[in-house]
Design goal:
about 80% helix
């Protein structure tokens, strides 16, 4: 008998249960062990707390609670020091177990102390003191362990389940403590508390052994010594942001605990004033049990989903908002005298209820997530110090504040309990408002650190002050150093301040080496100014100057000066002068001379253009471009375009663009096809600007031209970067698809990120005018819908349903299409979200599970589009079928109905305009081997496809599926331009014994 059926049923039930509690496969064992440890430990603490609460109120009263808070602060600080000290002595996996046992052992002492009459009262005080101290220690232990076992995305799902252990403990302990006190007595309840806390410690030990790889092997002291040298610089770079973040975290936890203890003090005050001791014990048990049930259901079925949907900080802000609202309502209702007492009692019970409910569900779930932006090597240390110091400090500060407020009220005559209760409640509302503000500040720092961690602290020059940069450039140029560094300085300076580059470079020309002199003069020639001609003249008059530098200096002086004597150029036209200088002089004479002088310069250039030496012809072509005048020498252009020298052809292309000689513009486009002349053609066409746009647009949109050539046309349009060019790019961003859209997006993004402020504003304006945010979101939705179709195809054409090599090739092509859609999604997101954050997230998604989780968290915080949740689901690491199911329920853009493989393939071909050429060809090859029928529309349309191998695949399909139709089509296909298709057609004609048509 086969067991596959029951096994599948069990797997299905397991999957549904994990879905119900929002966990993933592989997370359940860690989550269950953490849940068991926290439940057992919390049960012991709750039994200890509830059984001693009534005894404490009877012995000391609520007025003594501030002293508990003050003394507990000292104990808590001591325990945090112990926690940190233990980490320096033992590996972390042992420390967490030691701490769990340390919390349990004193319970045995409490059990013994209550049996001694003269120790009973101090023991009640000590029990309450210990409970307040170990609550925070238990949460710290849990949080540190969880951060070692889970990444940032796993914590969002698993931590609500884990932290619900405290709620399960509340339910069990709350409803059972009263019965246990009656049945077995207080001493045995304390013993039971000790036993279950030890069980929790044993569970934690088992977990630390099973997942030993998740914990550091060495004590923190050894790790610090080993990493001190390597991580010093990175710590220095991140010190400022991390310190700010840690200060805010510290403030966050301080205020959180102060509000907790303040509300607790007011709550117990009202209980003491309203109920007797027996009623308090019963009420607390019932209150804890009911609250625990509600918290439990919230944690299991709501918290993780709410945090994943709304984000960490939106959820965390709920509690301070609720405290403010309930506090203000209670204050307002307490002013009518007849309602004052009951309003305060009910209001504080409700406030305590909501505070505990939201604190131990939503806020507790976010707690470990807030430490994730801190680097791994220092996270547990920061976590132990922030939690270990902040909470005890808050406890002590609350106790002092309460005692001070009571003393101050008594001194000024406000000793009435009603007045003091209102003052405490008002202080709680104010503290909640401050807590709200700190959370808002914390959010921006949280995201900033996540992005810094993903980008590894990369900085840009856009943050620097131009004046400081210039001073640094001057120091770099004047001091001894590598020429490569100085070359980089000149290049950067000419990029960030091209008009004023001469201000820095001209005074230093004479002292620079020849290579830097040449680079400096080239940069200064972009914006020649008469203010610097004296310094350039020094270079020009220096004996034995390099010809290239002499030519640049000569050109600079003549272009910068308004008055000139043309006779000064004639000595440079002599044949013994170097070709580069002679060509420059001739071009200047053509530009600025009279008719006779131009004729003289033309004769010089004619000799250079027909000279046997390559250098002479190259310099002659360059001179033509510099002269802005080519007509008289145009008879030589056709020969020069066929010149055997590549350098000559490149120089001539630049000259055609420089002189805007329209007759030879087609030569520029032709040069784009060849790798050898492509760079020169791109430079030339870019120089033409808007004048080149019509022919570039025609080339870019011609699908029958090679893709490489069309991509080069798009790139040149982007390089031109004028408003008409940008409008054309954005218009085609909407209408094109696949690799063309991806290429346009890359061009627009590179223009936006690598250009200056003026260019960025131009692109922003064009995008806003032609697309706007709504248009970008429409493009995002299109990509999302397409990704959904690809996922559906991958599911319906899975390897288990369609085997074979052709099917494998199609599945690989579909994976490529999905990756391309994801890339386009990220590119589009960079237009509506912080570009650096999106880039950091994209890089993180290709890394480890921890890095991927960081990337998803960045996206969750920075992306603000309508279908953000669907985009995150698409990027999630789930099986395709599960991902598709969730996407179909999250957005109307994706509707999935399972289809037979043949129907799914036909639907894919309905989307042929969106598929890549290879994916389209794979569809026909798969249909051929599987003998699936395709429509006549599909075959006829794709027989006219621009790509040869697609037409080849269609013919191969028709040879199997419809030989009669193929016989009719073969004569037409003999005119095909692709040699592979022609070879296939000839073979098929031979196979069917058809008469070949006359050759073309």
């Amino acid at each position: 008998m086969s067991l596959s059926g029951p096994v599948q049923d069990i797997q299905s039930l397991r999957g549904r249960f994990l879905d119900l509690i929002n966990l993933r496969s592989g997370e359940e064992e860690r989550t269950l062990l953490m849940f068991a440890f926290y439940t057992a430990t919390s049960m012991g603490i709750v039994w200890l707390e509830v059984s001693s609460a009534a005894l404490f109120l009877e012995a000391y009263g609520a007025a003594s609670l501030p002293w508990i808070y003050i003394f507990s602060a000292g104990v808590g600080l001591g325990l945090s020091v112990v926690y940190s000290w233990l980490q320096r002595l033992f590996p972390l996996r042992r420390v967490i177990v030691i701490i769990a046992m340390l919390m349990a052992i004193p319970v045995l002492g409490f059990r013994w102390g209550l049996t001694v009459p003269w120790l009973a009262a101090p023991m009640v005080f000590s029990m309450r003191l210990w409970i307040e101290a170990i609550y925070g220690l238990n949460d710290l232990n849990l949080s540190v362990t969880a951060n070692q076992l889970f990444n940032i995305r796993e914590i969002k799902r698993a931590y609500p389940i884990i932290s619900s252990g405290n709620l399960v403990a509340d339910v069990i302990s709350g409803f059972s403590v009263y019965l246990l006190l009656r049945l077995i007595g207080l001493q045995n309840v304390l013993l039971l508390s000790f036993v279950v806390m030890v069980i929790g410690a044993v569970t934690l030990y088992h977990l630390s052994r099973n997942y030993e790889h998740a914990f550091p092997d060495s004590p923190r002291r050894q790790a610090e010594d080993a990493e001190a040298v390597e991580s010093y610089r990175s710590r220095q770079r991140l010190q400022g942001p991390i310190q700010q973040y840690v200060v805010l975290l510290f403030s966050f936890f301080v205020l959180a605990q102060m509000l907790l203890f303040s509300i607790e003090f007011q709550f117990f005050n009202q209980l003491e004033a309203t109920l007797d001791v027996a009623a308090i014990a019963a009420f607390l048990g019932f209150f804890s049990g009911l609250l625990g049930l509600i918290e439990l259901f919230t944690q299991w079925f709501t918290s993780s989903r709410l945090i994943e949907r709304e984000g960490v900080f939106k959820v965390a802000l709920v509690l301070p908002s609720v405290i403010v609202v309930i506090g203000l309502v209670t204050l307002v209702l307490s002013y009518p005298t007849r309602l004052a007492v009951s309003a305060l009692f009910v209001g504080l019970v409700v406030l305590k209820f909501f505070d505990e409910w939201l604190r131990y569900t939503l806020v507790a779930t976010t707690r470990p997530i807030l430490f994730q932006p801190i680097p791994d090597q220092v996270r547990s240390t920061v976590q132990s110090w922030v939690s270990g110091i902040a909470e005890p400090l808050a406890m002590g500060a609350t106790g002092i504040a309460i005692l001070f407020t009571i003393a101050l009220c008594n001194r000024v005559g406000l000793s009435a309990g009603l007045v003091q209760a209102r003052l405490f409640l008002l202080g709680t509302v104010v503290a909640a408002l401050v807590w709200f503000a700190i959370m808002v500040l914390l959010r921006s720092r949280y995201l900033n650190l996540l992005v810094r961690g993903a980008e590894r602290g990369l900085l840009t020059f856009s943050d620097a002050n131009l004046r400081v940069l210039k001073r640094a450039f001057i120091e770099q140029l004047e001091q001894p150093g590598l020429e490569a560094n100085k070359r980089s300085c000149i290049e950067l300076l000419s990029h960030i301040d091209p008009k004023n580059v001469g201000e820095i470079l001209a005074p230093r020309l004479a002292t620079l080496p020849p290579g830097l002199q040449r680079q400096s003069l080239e940069a200064m020639l972009e914006h020649p100014s008469g203010a610097y001609t004296a310094q350039v003249q020094e270079v020009l008059q220096r004996p034995h100057q390099a010809p290239e530098i002499l030519a640049l200096a000569l050109r600079y002086v003549w272009l910068a000066e308004e008055t000139f004597n043309i006779n000064d150029l004639r000595p440079y036209l002599q044949t013994e002068v170097d070709a580069v200088v002679r060509g420059t002089a001739a071009s200047l004479m053509l530009r600025r001379g009279n008719l006779q002088e131009r004729a003289e310069a033309t004769a010089t250039l004619r000799k250079m253009l027909v000279h046997d030496e390559e250098r002479e012809r190259v310099m002659g072509c360059r001179a033509l471009g510099e002269a802005d005048y080519m007509e008289s020498l145009s008879i030589y252009i056709d020969d020069l375009l066929q010149d055997p020298s590549l350098r000559v052809r490149r120089a001539l292309l630049e000259a055609i663009a420089a002189t805007q000689y329209k007759k030879y513009y087609p030569s520029l486009l032709k040069a784009l096809q060849y790798k050898s002349t492509r760079e020169a053609a791109i430079t030339a066409l870019t120089r033409l600007g808007n004048e080149a746009l019509p022919m570039l647009q025609e080339l870019a949109l011609d699908t029958y031209r090679p893709e490489v050539l069309r991509n080069q046309a798009w790139q040149v349009i982007g390089n031109i970067g004028t408003l008409p060019a940008l409008d054309f790019l954005i218009q085609n961003l909407i209408t094109t698809w696949g690799s063309t859209r991806r290429h346009i997006l890359r061009i627009l993004l590179s223009l936006y990120q690598e250009s200056g402020v003026k260019r960025s504003s131009l692109i922003d304006g064009a995008l806003d005018r032609m697309l706007g945010r709504g248009g970008i979101e429409d493009l995002l939705n299109t990509e999302l819908a397409f990704a959904g179709q690809i996922l559906a195809a991958k599911v319906d054409l899975a390897a288990g349903r369609v085997p074979g090599v052709e099917a494998d090739l199609l599945r690989e092509a579909l994976n490529g299409l999905q990756n391309d859609a994801t890339d386009r999604l990220f590119m589009l997101l960079r237009f509506v979200s912080p570009a650096q954050a999106i880039q950091a997230a994209q890089v993180s998604l290709s890394g480890s599970a921890s890095s991927w989780a960081r990337g998803i968290e960045i996206l969750d915080n920075v992306v603000d589009v309508a279908n953000k949740r669907s985009i995150l689901l698409l990027l999630d690491r789930r099986p395709d079928a599960e991902k598709l199911k969730r996407l179909a329920t999250s957005t109307p853009l994706i509707a999935y109905q399972p289809l037979p493989p043949g129907d799914r393939l036909r639907q894919l071909l309905d989307l042929r305009n969106f598929l890549s050429d290879w994916a389209t060809a794979c569809c026909f090859h798969l249909a051929r081997v599987q003998r699936w029928n395709l429509t006549a529309e599909h075959t006829l349309a794709l027989l006219q496809h621009p790509t040869g191998f697609v037409r080849e695949a269609v013919l191969a399909y028709l040879a199997v599926a419809s030989p009669r139709a193929l016989r009719e089509l073969l004569p037409i296909m003999q005119q095909d331009s692709n040699h592979l298709v022609l070879a296939q057609v000839k073979q098929l004609i031979s196979t069917y014994n058809l008469e070949p048509s006359p050759s073309r």
